[in-house]
Amino acid sequence: MVAVTARRRVVSGMRPTGRLHLGHLVGALDNWTRLQDEYDCFYFVADWHALTSEYASTGDITAHAIDNAADWIGAGIDPERSTLFIQSLVPEHAELYLLLQMITPVSWLERVPTYKEQIAQLSEKDLSNLGFLGYPLLQTADVVIYDANFVPVGDDQVPHLELSREVVRRFHNFYGEVFVEPQPLLTPTPRLPGLDNRKMSKSYGNTIDLGDPPDVVVKKVRQMYTDPKRVRADVPGTVEGNPVFIYHDAFNPNRDEVEDLKTRYRAGKVGDVEVKTKLAAALNARLDPIRERRAAALARPGALREMLVEGSRRARHTAAATMDRVRDAVKLRY
Ligand code: TRP
């Protein structure tokens, strides 16, 4: 008899390729934070995944890993409730990845949409390496090694989870039931544009980072793209699709203020300066506690590192138990 119902498990990871920004906050971290109330959460720094494309310059990965972990804590991820860890400190992921490679047709990986898309988009990088092709299979190992029920991801990652389930079924056909089939947990958030209204991305330099100080936030908001047809404050403007209002909707909790600004903007009765000053104030109010927790974490680098090492130890304990089952299933028991 099962005495207590174990909480279902969530696993998700992020590649440590740079500083985290508002897109990561609304697209992932806010959701990760909420999920802690309901699930047994494992969140990790996917440093091996970073290597699949950053193999030529690996020097910044560990610094980003630590900085990102501080952002996670800043955003509300609680290392007491969730297991935070570093992928490469749990080498069992690599062992499972290797075994999954034995049963995964290359064609399954070649047809994952992100594969050809990324190769085309990142044309300045040589992504013809085997590791990049294997990216979604390593991701499969990441989640099934913890019996994850749910994987919070953006919609671009849904095909990766489809692949994961197909690989799990194939594994079960050969060796019997071992894994849980993971399901994506889509983050229901509108996509935030960058400051220049292109896709938000650090490579475009159009982000507001979680660690940006208040004056930098003010400066960046001042430079934000608005309705280009609105050359003066008394010209009626368009609110829909206007980044400044998308941000107001996402970050300004004062709904009355936002509605008032929209009404006056549409009527040509408010200047950009007022709209942006109020947006910067709302953003800074939202970022203040994040910055504070982030700075406190970074002020004690030894403790931050130790937390990740300890989390990795806990994760490894679970991963090792799964690998015991896996080795039995594939009959590699000596
Ligand atoms: N591919 C994910 C991304 O780019 C990162 C990732 C690696 C991940 N392993 C994972 C996400 C396992 C969820 C589960 O966002």
Describe the structure.
The chain is mainly alpha-helical and 334 residues long. It has helices at 22-35, 47-54, 61-75, 92-103, 106-110, 113-121, 130-133, 135-144, 158-175, 214-222, 243-251, 255-267, 272-299, 301-329; strands at 9-14, 40-45, 83-86, 150-153, 183-186. Helix content is 55%, strand content 7%. The protein has a 3-stranded parallel beta sheet. Strands 4-5 form a two-stranded parallel sheet. Strand 1 (9-14), helix 1 and strand 2 form a beta-alpha-beta unit. It binds tryptophan.
Question: Which helices and strands occur, and which strands form pairs?
Answer:
Layout: E1 9-14, H1 22-35, E2 40-45, H2 47-54, H3 61-75, E3 83-86, H4 92-103, H5 106-110, H6 113-121, H7 130-133, H8 135-144, E4 150-153, H9 158-175, E5 183-186, H10 214-222, H11 243-251, H12 255-267, H13 272-299, H14 301-329
Parallel strand pairs: 1-2, 2-3, 4-5
Bound molecules: tryptophan.
Tryptophan binds at residues 11-15, 46, 49, 139, 142-143, 151, 153, 157.
